[in-house]
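Morning!

As promised:
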Amino acid sequence: MNISTSLRAGPDGKGHFGEFGGRYVAETLMPLILELEAAYTEAKADPAFHAELDDLLKHYVGRPSPLYFAERLTDELKGAKIYLKRDELNHTGAHKINNCIGQILLARRMGKTRIIAETGAGQHGVATATVAARFGLPCTIYMGARDIERQAPNVFRMKLLGAEVKAVESGSRTLKDAMNEALRDWVTNVHDTFYIIGTAAGPHPYPELVRDFQTVIGKEARAQILEREGRLPDLLVAAIGGGSNAIGLFHPFLDDEGVRIVGIEAAGRGLDTEEHAASLAGGRAGVLHGNKTMLLQDEDGQITEAHSISAGLDYPGIGPEHAWLNAIGRVEYQSATDTEALEGFQLLCRTEGIIPALEPSHAIAAVARIAPTMGKDQIIIANLCGRGDKDIFTVAEALGVKM
Amino acid sequence: MTDRLSARFAACAAQGRAALVTFVTAGDPDLATSAEILAALPGAGADVIEIGMPFTDPMADGPAIQRGNLRSLGSGTTLKAVLAMVKAFREGDTQTPIVLMGYFNPILSFGPERFAVEARAAGIDGCIVVDLPPEEAGELAPALAAHGLHLVRLATPTTDAHRLPTVLDGASGFLYYVAVAGVTGANSAAAADVAAAVARLKAATSLPIAVGFGVREPAQAAAIAVHADAVVVGSAIVDAIGAAAEARANDIPARVAAQVAALAQAVRTARHEAAGVGAGQENAA
């Protein structure tokens, strides 16, 4: 591949990554989107903003997260050396907090006094409720009624943190419907409300700013692997729903031609069924939730329901930068089924004493598939973007264990 | 080209009254009933008809129109069927302007050029695409313009003096003023706020101003009709269709026609009544 200019320069001035991205929102929201863009541009150039963000990431979130050499997993798979980026050790147990800290600092800068968010698995909802509590702002979280059923521990966490959790009963009652409802709230409460979007999707500038706040993962991993191994990795692997943990790891490496990058979509019950969440493998370009991206949709442009055992990956779209990286071929996108993810989940529990969330279990499943085909002198970094405590009930049910 | 929209607005203005714009979702509760409702609207007093193209994820709509969308999709409505329904309507009515309203993805999926060609052939006059702001309109606007279709722009309470020129640049047909920041069918705006907004917009454009969102009752419609060139009523009609469908009523078109007739009566007499009341007050003073 010929990389003549940096792949890290996007989006363009209108928020496009190639043909993807953009600002497809109701006119009521356009002035707010433009105001947010201006505020973010200003914040990016302000050393005081970065100083406060860095301080919170270090002392409140617990960064940098370790880059851990998974010795027994490596021995078991008999291939490349596997490192895990331990973002599950962050405060609140997932990478989501990196972005929430950044966005709530922006909200405060803009004088907003009320926070809303959507959540799928509940990790982003917990992270948002956490920062809202930390900064003393009232917070409403929209969550699909079906997700509320399968993520009860996170619902309780959000309530403990003082958030109001609103069950969304429309549509498929999952993440996409929660996002519709959050957008409806935002358009109704334009003057005081800041919408903390949880993934690198939505109208510009969200894909850019969420990515920027998550690139702390990749920046740390790059420095850490250079320190440990004296060279860059051969392969990066991360799971993708909307794709914020993946773009956070990948982005600082996009211009490193020797680094192979693989994103893992959720194949649910299989790509040959209609029950999956692989919008790159099984979707086509369309417009939803403020951006143009790859979407699961029927022939009439109606959005179809996604399926994954992981509530955090159960979304019919993907961040626009991933859609673009797929289109230009810089990042390779594969998938893992529910069954493979469950195997990855158990593999990591057994070999490393780490209970991963079901989302990164998809990445572990891909590592288990790819590592044995690589040489022992090669290096993989996989993003362990969340811990699995929230998923033990789902896993028990899938394994036929009664708790 | 014959421009049904401009002709209709001009005719209403000549009569010294506002136009009534009624919204129904195509295929709600099913295509056959929907076609009958459509055919009944002009006789009941609808001056312009807005037809919602159903979408699974209507992010700018409140519960009433969300449910209307789901009823329609549940009965199997496609964009192709919506266009065919309008084509059939045109066989009996060549004068009432029809504006399609919806979200961009079904149009993008259909293909903007193909959409423009087939919409024009079906007798459609313009489109409102809720999630296609001026910044992204380049994918659809040229195709619509090439086939003589209006792309109607929206102004809202958040459209300030800085934003308004962007909204008006390329606006055609009429300007849709979203009276409240929110989703369809929610709260209604205060008449004084609407009057001020319409005056502000009229100073910036010669396009007719239609005001919608939160207009449910004849009295509310009349209060807006005093100031605006047109009043849009949507959720109240869609709610009534939903209630009638739930009750398995077999006279849904007649019920809708009665509701629209009451709205039309209020809109048509609004300025006269307002002038009368105003004169009365003056006399009393």
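Chain B has a mean pLDDT of 94.

Hope this helps with the figure draft.
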